[in-house]
Write a structure and sequence with these properties.
heterodimer; A: alpha+beta; two-stranded antiparallel ribbon; 3 helices; 3 strands; 9% strand; B: alpha+beta; nine-stranded mixed beta sheet; three-stranded antiparallel beta sheet; 16 helices; elongated; binds zinc ion
């Protein structure tokens, strides 16, 4: 076993996911299988290979420091589940 | 048991670019809620952030000014955490390949210079602002304004080299001074463009290993950082002295009550799960670019201070105060260029000028008295045309009316009375009118002289040359 149920509970908490008992069992198995496979990949000798920071061989894509128009507020809030006085409205934060 | 305090500081500074770090939204402070936002900084699906080149330049500038090594290869990472001030549920930051590493700055505390190491300087984005209904613990919901989300930030991390709260304050003042000199940030703590988190731990004197640290957040001024650290130092010493154990936790500073409070219940199980940001490509900087930025750096506070001490003969303290901000140092240089004597120029700058600027909440850049005019007034004092006391009245009039010193002196008849005959008559009249003071003086009460001087100054509306008054008074009282 690469990871146990407790690890999955921990990651679920960090990701703010509520998982049922069946889901916890299911994901523990699936994530474990993924990590097992990564162990297979880890067998490849990469000592002579530089760590890759990005899949594309592109560097230094930048833009000039120029202000562009922002969204109208109505548009910005359009997809918000809830809004009030031009603010995004979210559930209370500290339990 | 005696303890040694170990402090490390994390300073966040907003960069004064026109647009945000990864999108074209304005960074302007204020603005109605959620009007400086776009699909990129709101983290809508499918958008592509692109780095603002000015942010990289400012980061390198800062790194060089802090004596750091600039990385030739750098990248962005995602710092994952769920809090509604981040619309994307992660903050784009730098993890293992920051743009700058391994620098230092020198601070002066108690007349001694101390070097504080800089671990790293990295680029990241600022978060939004939460507005709570009621207090944070009893509110039913929170409102979020994302205008600050994506404003470019630099995080400057110090080595745990700081040993006292006083050193911490000096370090912050130095950081602010350097950032203002190199013109990368407004450094306005009240607008949140300069913020500080402090790590503090205690260890028995002589012990190599660090003690368990607490992190203090939410400190809004340099003074408050010092107070919060002083409080925390005392709290930890008390716990340790009673055989207790420090818990590694985040504490918040309550300025009104003057205490730090635990936030641990909210902080448990923090794990940012950093990974490389796939939407931003790596940054490669060559030596030529770095050297070009190095050449563009202005004279930094330490160098300027040393120069002013050497060229103008000012004390270390005066030079430190004057070079703390670049505009102040520029004003001083302009005074000297206009012919003012250095020590007088420094005294006026640190005295009346600063006093009136503070009273009017003005920056020296908007000082209503131009340096040439102040230099002209200082020259009038040197020449004996006006007394140092009257000069304060003249300066206030220059400030309020925008006129030059010679005009004000002429209009208000403030020329110093230095005529020995004229002043002698007034001195004699005052002596004649105050026999009790004369008797006191003859009885050995030197203080009586002060009263007589005050009377003479009143009669001359403060215009009498004070040195001459003193001499004449002594002569006439002692009959010599
Ligand atoms: Zn934007």
């Amino acid at each position: 076993m690469k990871l146990n149920r407790k690890d999955v509970e921990h990651v679920a908490l960090l990701s703010r996911l509520e998982l049922s008992e069946t889901e916890l069992d299911k994901y523990t198995g699936q994530l474990d299988a993924i990590l097992e496979y990564i162990d297979v990949l880890n067998q490849v000798d990469t000592s002579a290979v530089e760590p890759m920071a990005h899949v594309l061989d592109i560097r230094n894509v930048m833009r000039a420091d120029e202000v562009q128009p922002s969204l109208p507020r109505e548009a910005a809030l359009q997809n918000a589940p809830d809004a009030e006085d031009g603010f995004f409205k979210v559930p209370k934060i500290v339990e | 048991m005696k303890f040694e305090t170990v402090i490390g500081l994390e300073v966040h500074t907003e960069l004064k670019t026109a647009s945000k770090i990864f999108c074209g939204c304005t960074t302007e402070f204020g603005g109605d809620q959620n009007t400086h936002v776009c699909p990129v900084c709101l983290g809508l699906p499918g958008v592509l952030p692109v780095l603002n080149e000015k942010v990289l330049e400012f980061a390198i500038r800062t790194g060089l000014a802090l004596n750091c090594k600039i990385s030739h290869y750098s990248k962005f990472d995602r710092k994952n955490y769920y809090y509604p001030d981040l619309p994307k549920n992660f903050q784009t930051s730098q993890y293992d390949l920051p743009i700058c590493e391994g620098g230092y700055l020198d601070i002066e505390v108690g007349g001694e210079t101390k070097r504080i190491g800089i671990t790293r300087v990295h680029m990241e984005e600022d978060a939004g602002k939460l507005v709570h209904s009621g207090t944070i613990s009893n509110s039913e919901y929170a409102l979020v304004d994302y205008n600050r989300t994506g404003v470019p930030l630099l995080e400057i991390v110090s080595e745990p080299d700081i040993r006292t709260p006083e050193e911490a304050k000096a370090y912050l003042e130095k950081i602010k001074s350097i950032l203002s000199y190199i013109d990368v940030s407004d450094c306005k703590m009240e607008e949140g463009s300069l913020r500080c988190d402090a790590n503090i731990s205690l260890r028995p004197v002589g012990q190599e290993q660090f003690g368990t640290k607490a992190e203090i957040k939410n400190v809004n001024s340099f003074k408050a950082v010092q107070r919060a650290l002083e409080y925390e130092q005392e709290r930890q010493e008390e716990v340790l002295s009673e055989g207790g154990r420090i818990i590694q936790e985040t504490r918040t500073w309550d300025d009104s009550r003057g205490v730090t409070l635990s936030m641990r219940n909210k902080e448990q199980a923090q794990d940012y799960r950093y990974f490389p940001e796939p939407d931003l490509v790596p940054i490669v900087v060559d030596s030529e670019q770095i050297e070009a930025i190095r050449r563009s750096l202005p004279e930094l506070p330490d160098a300027r201070k040393a120069r002013i001490m050497k060229e103008q003969g000012l004390s270390a303290y005066d030079a430190e105060v004057i070079t703390a901000t670049r505009p102040m140092a520029d004003y001083f240089d302009a005074l000297i260029a206009a012919g003012a004597e250095a020590k007088a120029a420094a005294n006026w700058l640190m005295g009346e000028v600063s006093k009136l600027l503070n009273a009017c909440s003005l920056d020296i850049r908007s000082c209503p008295v131009p340096p040439a005019n102040l230099a002209e007034m200082i020259a009038l004092i040197e020449k004996g045309t006006i007394s140092g006391k009257i000069a304060k009245t003249v300066f206030e009039a220059m400030w309020n009316e925008g006129k030059t010193a010679p005009v004000i002196v002429k209009e208000q008849g403030l020329v110093q009375m230095s005529d020995e005959g004229e002043l002698g008559n007034i001195v004699e009249a005052v002596i004649a009118a105050n026999p009790q003071s004369v008797a006191d003086f003859n009885a050995g009460k030197e203080k009586a002289v002060g009263f007589l001087v005050g009377q003479i100054m009143r009669q001359t509306k403060g215009r009498a040359n004070p040195e001459l008054v003193n001499r004449l008074l002594k002569e006439k009282l002692t009959g010599k």
